Amino acid sequence: MSDAIRPLIVGAGPAGIRAAQVLVNLGIRPVVIDEAPSGGGQIYRQRLVPDERSAKDLYGSEAAKATNLHETFAGIRDRIDYLPETLVWNLRDKAADAVTGHRTRRIAFSHLILATGATDRVLPFPGWTLPGVFTLGGSQVALKSQGCAIGEEVVFLGSGPLLYLVAWQYVKAGASVVAVLDTAPFSAKLQLIRGLFAQPSVVFRGFRYAAELMARGVAVRFGVQPLRIDGTARVEGVVWRERGKEHRLACDAVGYGFSLRSETQLADLAGCRFIFDERDRAWRPERDGAGRTSMPGVYIAGDGAGIAGADAAELSGERAGLALLEDAGMSVYHARIGVLERKLACISKFRDVLESAFPFPAVWANGIADDVTLCRCEEIAVGDVRAAVRDQGVFELNRLKALTRVGMGRCQGRMCESAAVEVLAAACDRSPDAVGRLRAQPPIKPIPLEVAAEGEAA
Amino acid sequence: MALLKRLARHELPLVSFTLNGETCSGRAGDTVLTAILTQSDRLRLSDFSGNPRAGFCQMGACQDCWVLTSDGGRIRACSTVLEPGMNLRTITEPRS
């Protein structure tokens, strides 16, 4: 029977690897496709070649989890068909178009598990396109994978648990961190006390990071409103408002972000139904507690359908793998399913707490000036969106894209969609859910032209 | 002047490459982005305003780190591994 089951897993982070492991354990051989050269995803990203740093140096308190995940993946390597450095750029007729270098191929599948993860949610402000400004996730990649700090004097800015984690990792690695500028007020952090019951170790770790940063002389500020990043050719300083007063610090790099956003393009191409997630302030694919989407045989695990973090990704990867096996008529261990779903529900409750401790700066859209670049690919300004609303009566995101090119550039809205939704919604006086979401278009990332032609011919 | 600062991996073998006609070196395990930004502070000029850019997300999503190869190809610097003898050019002319 298992010959007829040929699952495709997209993404080899914590969710994809755990899903693959479950399938392999029951004798099923999945295809696992991942853009990175080695497994682990962004959170447990591996170096390209070994260096002097230990797992503890790289992954801190999560070293054991990272090592276990990497070892699991190495252990199942000969029982999966693994395509690293490969991009799934289209889905159609139960097959994926995948490109490795300049070679494309179609991969048919019986079932699909999407474990596509997330990227930083960013909001534009003056100076955000300057060299030396990176996302928080990008700052972390530079350190973990490349052993580099993003600058000599670094400021971290924004909101979300990653803000403190990355700053702390930088300090531990010997980088000079000038300040951590949190857009949430200090009072929001008191919400974390509610989280002590659900995930005490996570909460204590967060407080420890903040305390250690302060002890090492890093300025930690709350209730910050970012005003601009100074510089002409590169970052020279950051300016913000705090309790009515303007402040400036010299620095040569800024890492920033406001939590994460799901990578949902493939789910869209697979035909999955989307729902609006109030917590993430974004449309995301609908899934049940097991990872099943509205499309039979299509599952989503990890952050690709709502942000829940790495631990949840491992659990939901395993759960989605088991759901696939159940749906294929195989018998699975039901007690384990109960455990997984209970743990996932517990993490989800904790995410509510985190969201209130690191709230999205909802006032951002009204405060941002017309001349700030909104779409960094096509260089469209915030004011162009407002003008489209005012002059052309636009109130929907894809219409906005057609008229202004916001979201039409090479990143396909990954870096600007969250902000475009906020500006559009504020300008036409609607709620963010009412302005829609960008429709995914193949290829979901740029591919060489000859590859696309070959794919069409196939 | 460099944008990125190396904190580790100082002992890895040198990998020699060419950047805008000049011989440079990175370290084994570098991405093209790391190799360039540890000696320079930009990767390209933006397509319309011609302002300098130096990548952003470092995970293959933002598409802001494209550089040119000697054969006219375009590569995404953050997700391309540095190889010995690579002949790279940063984009110094805006598109329009």
Structural class of the helix and strand makeup of chain A?
A: alpha/beta
Low-confidence stretches of chain B: none
Low-pLDDT stretches of chain A: none
Text of the CATH class of the largest domain in chain A: Alpha Beta
Q: Give the CATH level 1 class of chain B.
A: Alpha Beta
Named CATH architecture of the largest domain in chain A: 3-Layer(bba) Sandwich
CATH superfamily of the largest domain in chain A: FAD/NAD(P)-binding domain
| Rg of chain B computed from alpha carbons, rounded to a whole number of angstroms | 13 Å
Strand arrangement in the largest pleated sheet of chain B: 3-2-8-6-7
Number of domains of chain B: 1
> What summary fits the major beta sheet of chain A?
5 strands, parallel
Task: Give the overall pLDDT of chain B as a whole number.
Answer: 94
Indicate the multimeric state: heterodimer
In CATH, the topology of the largest domain in chain A is named FAD/NAD(P)-binding domain
Question: Main β-sheet of chain B: number of strands, strand sense, barrel status?
Answer: 5 strands, mixed
Give the termini separation of chain B.
27 Å
Overall shape of chain B: it is: globular
Based on Cα principal axes, name the global outline of chain A.
Answer: globular
- Name the biggest interface: A-B, 54 and 40 residues
Q: Helix proportion of residues of chain A, in percent?
A: 25-40%
Following the backbone from N to C, one meets helices and strands of chain B in this order, namely: EEEHEEEEE
Pfam families (chain B): Fer2_4
Keywords (chain B): Oxidoreductase
InterPro entries (chain B): 2Fe-2S-bd_N (IPR042204), 2Fe-2S_ferredoxin-like_sf (IPR036010)
Protein name (chain B): (2Fe-2S)-binding protein
